[in-house]
Design a protein that fits this description.
2 domains, Arc Repressor Mutant, 0% strand, mainly alpha, 88 residues
Length: 88
């Protein structure tokens, strides 16, 4: 097996990954961490139908699941609020 040369930049690494190159030998997993986000809790939200349609328009445009999009938005907002609280 031919060993791949180390990528000289993140852009090169990304390009090689995007091109489908096998990058396993380029990654040092000895320092990898497993992040466990804790137990999942199910919640139910009632929303206006129009808001759901608008969310669905956005998710259709970017090609993600509605629940995943909402989780990302909530996560981003919580990080934003924590940053604002930390500054005060």
């Amino acid at each position: 097996m031919v060993k791949n040369k180390i990528a000289k930049s993140t852009e090169e690494f990304d390009r090689r990954f995007d091109d489908g190159e096998d990058i396993h030998e380029l990654i040092d997993i000895s320092k990898a961490k497993i992040v466990r986000h804790g137990r999942k809790v199910r919640i139910t939200l009632d929303m206006a139908e129009e808001l759901v349609r608008e969310i669905d328009d956005i998710r259709d445009a970017i090609g993600v699941d509605r629940g995943a999009l909402i989780k990302v938005w909530l996560h981003e907002r919580v990080k934003q609020e924590k940053a604002l609280t930390a500054r005060s």
